[in-house]
Amino acid sequence: xxxxxxxxxxxxxxxxxxxxxxxxxxxxxxxxxxxxxxxxxxxxxxxxxxxxxxxxxxxxxxxxxxxxxxxxxxxxxxxxxxxxxxxxxxxxxxxxxxxxxxxxxxxxxxxxxxxxxxxxxxxxxxxxxxxxxxxxxxxxxxxxxxxxxxxxxxxxxxxxxxxxxxxxxxxxxxxxxxxxxxxxxxxxxxxxxxxxxxxxxxxxxxxxxxxxxxxxxxxxxxxxxxxxxxxxxxxxxxxxxxxxxxxxxxxxxxxxxxxxxxxxxxxxxxxxxxxxxxxxxxxxxxxxxxxxxxxxxxxxxxxxxxxxxxxxxxxxxxxxxxxxxxxxx
Length: 329
Prior knowledge:
Layout: E1 11-23, E2 30-35, E3 44-47, E4 51-58, E5 66-69, E6 94-100, E7 106-112, E8 124-129, E9 144-152, H1 157-165, E10 175-178, E11 187-191, E12 196-203, E13 210-214, E14 219-224, E15 227-228, E16 233-234, E17 236-239, E18 244-250, E19 257-264, E20 272-279, H2 299-310, H3 316-328
Parallel strand pairs: 1-4, 3-8, 9-12, 11-20
Antiparallel strand pairs: 1-2, 4-6, 5-7, 7-8, 9-10, 12-18, 13-17, 13-19, 14-15, 14-16, 14-18, 19-20
Helix pairs in contact: 2-3
EC number: 1.10.3.3
Family: Belongs to the multicopper oxidase family.
InterPro entries: Cu-oxidase-like_N, Cu-oxidase_2nd, Cu-oxidase_fam, Cupredoxin
């Protein structure tokens, strides 16, 4: 009788030391939350079906939990890091998360869930690659870059928590950041002319939707919320809180610096952050003229993204017909 031998899916092990530290997303130092001394926190790079084991040491003076936004946690719902399904990690202690990214691909992020800790850091990217035997509907990019966007409050997380506990709103954010900084002329990333790069974009903020664009560089949307989508090209993308996109960007412009731009949407006062992308052989600074964000409720854009996400063989015609009717009203 033949015996079937099955190997277990691979394990990835991480150790996180969570501490307070100085951060300056808006250029002014304030107390933030670091993971292994990093802000934003370390990336988690995994492949579909990997088992992820993270030993979290809490060196804060407050209880702590982490959640994994968008991860299904099948048969592991008690690992989702929210009060009610998991007890918080007490100060000076540790806890080991263990979950499997079963049958998932795409761009996600993690963040702390207790005491408004998310407002001052502790977040980072979590990517899940497709297994080699499952083809991806686009060529491998030259490199991949995380773009973690968010609104930011100059107030401490304790003050923001007191606001909510007393029934007050958070108020307006103080600014916007891209990967933990609001501006700067040094390059965040570099691109080689003629090559295509994958940008994984997530809104890790608290309340405001953000529009993201890159000077003179259209973006091909290829993945959203863990699903491959109809590949349309956009000059900008609205990224709502908790949402993640993956786009392809080709370095086919004049070799120099270009700004990545994130700005608030649907707010009276528009807050903006910029970071630089530099061509490897680039000469010259980025133009100070930033690409404009769309105004108002861009219904055509919204329907195009909805179509890209939901469209499949049996639903394309139905969605297209309903989109035409909605635009006509």
